[in-house]
Amino acid sequence: MPFAAVPPTAAWSHLGSRTGFEVAYFRRAENGYHIHGCTTAVDDDRTWFVEYELSLDAHWVTRAALVRGRSGFGRRTALLEADGDGHWMVNGDKAARLDGCVDVDLESSALTNAFPVHRLELAVGAGADAPAAYVRAADLSVGRLEQHYTRIEDHHGQQCYDYVSPAFDFRARLVYDRSGLVVSYPEIAVRAA
């Protein structure tokens, strides 16, 4: 079942050790999507905010991410540019460590877990690796994050995926709405609007 069109805006409340909120705005472009959003949080008694501008092609492949933030580390900016074939530039420099990554994953964002689900279009029972260029919330450092998504049976018309991130020894069952945006991300976030 294909996803419905994304809404003009969506929002999530953070859960677990983090208290905060994320809001995103979507604009359909001729060649894909432009997404502008912001997350603010208190995480282990540290405050931060992250603002992002993301460009995706028509297949939900990340083409660019401009991320700005502020935390105890001060103000930071990270510019990620991708060729769509798994090669990246970070702040103007080639980033070979990200070779093979197609998605960006912002630590501060529940939204970015929608990108591989849209892009992969997995059938029930199928799974796939989805390594991502991972941007940390506090200092906007960029690294590689190995991830795996397995689609399981839908629940009440919502797509469900078993998600694994080995680096964090983290597993969760993610639930998505009809437009392919995360509704429930256990211990991380829940859809608010």
Question: Would you kindly provide a written description of the structure presented here, covering whatever features stand out?
Answer:
By secondary structure, this protein is mostly beta strands. The protein is 4% helix and 58% strand. The chain has one domain. The protein has 1 helix and 17 strands. The mean pLDDT is 97.
Shape: globular
Count of DSSP E strands? Answer: 17
Q: Please tell me how large the radius of gyration is.
A: 16 Å
In the sheet with the most strands, the strands line up as: 8-7-6-5-4-3-2-1-17-16-15-14-13-10
Low-confidence stretches: none
Number of helical runs? 1
β-strand amount: over 45%
Q: How many strands, which pairing sense, and closed or not: the largest β-sheet? A: 14 strands, antiparallel
Order of helices and strands: EEEEEEEEEHEEEEEEEE
Overall pLDDT metric: 97
> How many separate structural domains?
1
Helical percent range?
under 10%
State the end-to-end CA separation.
23 Å
| Helix/sheet category | mainly beta
